[in-house]
Structure formats: structure tokens, C-alpha cells
Design a protein that fits this description.
about 325 residues; alpha/beta; 13 strands; about 15% strand; globular
């Protein structure tokens, strides 16, 4: 009844446009890239389109190879794709504040000769932005390619790293339309120097982005006012949800710059030897009441993650959580 597990926007768009189904889609997605370039204030040659961010991550690893380095916990596809392609993956733990250790990342990248460093900021599943100073230090001091995944940037008050593209040629940025109500289209963008875009484009499969997704994305990207209104609603609901969860006994929500909230269950007790425990029981009890969130105990001990939904969905979640507790 209430699905709050996948970090989707609760606000969608109803569209229907004629698409010539007998013709292949524009392989270069020229209209879409032009509009994205205007929105991001870059040139079309700085942008490569992908079937969601996942395909762009895949293409980056295919193009440049490994080892691939990233902090954990983070977006699982960095590791899954690296492993699927037979590339070595280097995982470095975040600190107690879910921030990166820039010195350790630089040291490990040099020692292991990493080809790619992935930094998701805001980070999934922790919800926080990494320290901009530390991210910049990695970009500035490393001769490796640094990929800053900004999938959740629309929900953050922190500045993005797009203005640094011209200064640092090893910087690559990922963006997606999935989190702002267009997850069904599977449209993502890689923004980088024209030289990097040129190389990654060599391994991109032809017609990777279908005609319907291109048409709908072009139409809806022009509706910035409606999209921004939905984003503001999610940010407002996120603040309200954190306040309501903070007063519940045995629940500690973490600060979030994304469209979801990671929260710890029974944070004051000593950590048990077995994983999960009470968090898994709460997850199952919520599911039995028709509320689906994400069980994160495999990545972050005793933690669950809830997507910020509509006011009605959020109220149903809080009500069910109170009943379960």
C-alpha cells in the first residue's frame, strides 16, 4: 500500500506523445543533450546520455578499467558492476560521521593504481554529503579519474561540483532524472571534458536510450516549475519526517541531503553479535502493515531507510512505525 523503499519521487507526470515506433531512436540524443546542457550550463559535447546512471557507471568501468575505488557503505552498483566486469574493487570505510577519509583514499588509490574513484554525494544509503573540502582535495591531488555521483543533488543545499569541470580534467559528474519523478524513463547524464566523453562514447551501445524516454524527458525537463515544486515538497516533508521520527523512542534518524532518511533502531543499546535484530523485526512488522521501506542492516548495522513520500504516505509510515514500536 505504501512503497517507500526505492528512493523514487512520489510525484510523477502524465504524458502521452506520438513516437515513431518503426524508426530507431536518435543514437546521439541530440535534443535531449542540448536541453540538458542548457540546464546544467555546459556544452552538449560535455554530456553523454545513458540508460540511467547504472549504464554510465558500467561504460566508465568498461572504458577505463580497474581497480575501482569507493567508500562504503555507498551505492551498490559501483561494486556489483566492477565485479561483473572482473575488475578489482577497493572499498574503504566511511568514518563514524559517514564522511570520507581523503588522505586514505589518495594513499590507497596510488598504492593500488586505481583507475576510477567513485564518490556519491549526497551518499546512498547514508543521505549525507561528503565534506566538499575533502572531495576537492581528492580531485585536486589525484591523477586518477574522480567520479562524483550527484544523483541526489536536487535535494541538497550544498553546492554541486559542476563549476569545477573546466578546472579539473580528471573530474566526472553523474546526474539522473530518476529521483525527480522520471525513474521510469531511465535517463542519466555523464558530464565531463569532451575528451572523456569521446572515449566513453566509443563503448556506448547504439540506440541505448529509447525514443519514448527521449521525447518525454525533453518535454518534462522544460517543465522546471512543476518539477521544482515537487522537489520543494519532498524537502519540506523530509524535515517534518525527521522531526516526527526524532521524538520516537528507540529511533535515531540521521541528517539527510537526499530524498530518503537513514535511521538507526535502538541506538542506545550495546551492539549485538548478530546482525539486524530489532531493525529486521521492525522492517517485517511494517511490511505486515502494508508499509515497505528498505532494510539496510547488511550495509549499516541496525539501520533502515525510508524514502520521503507524499504527506499521506509519510503519515501512514509514521503511524505504522508508532504501532510497531
Amino acid at each position: 500500500k505504501v512503497k517507500l523503499d526505492a528512493n523514487e519521487s512520489p510525484y510523477g507526470f502524465r504524458v502521452l506523445r506520438s513516437v515513431k515506433t518503426n524508426q530507431y531512436p536518435d543514437p546521439e540524443a541530440k535534443a535531449l543533450r542540448k536541453l540538458a546542457a542548457q540546464d546544467l550550463k555546459v556544452k552538449p559535447e560535455n554530456i553523454l546520455h545513458g540508460n540511467g546512471s547504472d549504464e554510465l557507471i558500467y561504460n566508465l568501468i568498461v572504458t577505463f578499467g580497474g581497480p575501482v575505488l569507493y567508500p562504503v557503505p555507498t551505492f551498490s552498483m559501483y561494486g556489483i558492476i566492477s565485479q561483473a566486469l572482473g575488475e578489482k574493487k577497493i572499498e574503504l570505510p566511511l568514518d563514524e560521521k559517514f564522511d570520507i577519509d581523503s588522505q586514505e583514499i589518495l594513499k590507497s588509490a596510488k598504492k593500488n593504481r586505481a583507475k576510477l574513484i567513485f564518490l556519491s554525494s549526497p551518499n546512498n544509503p547514508t543521505g549525507n554529503c561528503f565534506s566538499p573540502r575533502k572531495v576537492l582535495e581528492i580531485i585536486r591531488k589525484s591523477d586518477r579519474l574522480v567520479v562524483v555521483d550527484e544523483a541526489y543533488q536536487p535535494f541538497s543545499a550544498r553546492n554541486d561540483f559542476l563549476p569545477l569541470l573546466n578546472k579539473y580534467k580528471n573530474l566526472i559528474i553523474l546526474r539522473t532524472l530518476s529521483k525527480v519523478g522520471l525513474a521510469g524513463l531511465r535517463v542519466g547524464f555523464m558530464i565531463a571534458s569532451p575528451e572523456i566523453v569521446f572515449e566513453v562514447n566509443k563503448v556506448r551501445l547504439p540506440f541505448n536510450l529509447n525514443s519514448l524516454s527521449q521525447k518525454v524527458a525533453v518535454e518534462l525537463m522544460a517543465k522546471k516549475r512543476e518539477m521544482n515544486r515537487n522537489i520543494k515538497s519532498i524537502i519540506s516533508e523530509r524535515k517534518k519526517l525527521i522531526r516526527e521520527m526524532s521524538i520516537l523512542p528507540g529511533i535515531r534518524p540521521y541528517p539527510s541531503d537526499a530524498n530518503f532518511i537513514l535511521f538507526k533502531v535502538d541506538p542506545d543499546r550495546e551492539r549485538r553479535s548478530q546482525r539486524g535484530g530489532k531493525a529486521e523485526k521492525i522492517f517485517s512488522a511494517l511490511l505486515n502493515r502494508g508499509v515497505l521501506i528498505r532494510n539496510m542492516t547488511g550495509a549499516v548495522a541496525d539501520c533502515l531507510r525510508v524514502t520521503v513520500g507524499t504527506p499521506k504516505e509519510n503519515a501512514a509510515f509514521v503511524k505504522a512505525l508508532k504501532q510497531v514500536l
